[in-house]
Amino acid sequence: MIDVPVHDMKGTAVGSLSIDEGLLGGEVRPALLKQAYVMFHANRRQGSARTRGRGDVEGSTRKLYKQKGTGNARVGARRTVIRKGGGVAFAKTKTRESYRLDMPRKQRRLANRNALLAKLVDGEVKVVDRLDFEAGPKTAVMRELMSALHVDRTCLLALDRANRNAALAARNLADVDTIRAEQLNAFDLLNHRYLVIEKAQLEAFVDGSLWRQTEEAA
Q1: What pLDDT does residue 217 have?
Q2: Are residues 111 and 94 in the same domain?
């Protein structure tokens, strides 16, 4: 069992939460995490990068200067591939390229839980009893919370979908990104140093009830 401290909005420890690492894969699995990370990264590529060939760039086809008598190397039009601003040799002209990869759903979910386990083992999960912003979204309050939790690097803030005020309070903080708790994934977890999450959302993520709610809603 892994014991994680639970804090209040002032950063004071008010209890602890025990998490069974067996529910998160038992041990950190680097090969699985890499496979999931590569998959998520590839699936976010648009595949729309294009380059212009010699016939696509703007410019005259006139020879820049005469072939002989100038003392310079011979040269053709300014649109050739060897000149700045010219076209690209073997230009990319496909309509769309797909880099999509896939993993079985059970394997993908295991990777998401295992990424959380890696964060827990390293002490990079900050659990808050309740993110209370009912008085309104205050960036200063969120900044004070992050400071009290000793969050000094990039942070992923996992929120309940109804907690819009917390999302608004965090959006102006430089290294804080927000995500809905049911959308937590290995890519975003590994791309941030810390995870800040409510106790109820963490418990629901570990026991799988968040995913079941999402599937029923769909």
Answers
A1: 45
A2: no
192 vs 62: CA distance, rounded Å: 54
Q: Give yes or no: residues 183 and 76 share one domain.
A: no
Tell me if residue 154 falls in helix, strand or coil: coil
Phi, psi of 141, rounded to the nearest 5 degrees: -65, -40
Where does the chain show beta strands of DSSP type E? Answer: 2-7, 13-19, 125-128, 155-159, 176-180, 194-198
What is the residue range of 120's domain? 2-42+103-217
The reported pLDDT for the residue numbered 214 is 52
Domain count, the chain: 2
| Backbone φ, ψ for residue 16 (5° rounding) | -145, 160
Amino acid at 29: R
User: Considering only CA atoms, which of 116, 113, 118, 126 is closest in space to residue 4?
Assistant: 126
Report the CATH number at residue 135.
Answer: 3.40.1370.10
**pLDDT of res. 179:** 92
What is the SS3 assignment for 17? Answer: strand
pLDDT at 21: 87
Q: In degrees rounded to 5, what are phi and psi of residue 70?
A: -95, -20
Statement to judge: residues 60 and 148 lie in one domain: no
* pLDDT value at 215 more than 80: no
Average pLDDT, the chain: 89
Q: How confident is the model at residue 132 (pLDDT cuts 50, 70, 90)?
A: confident
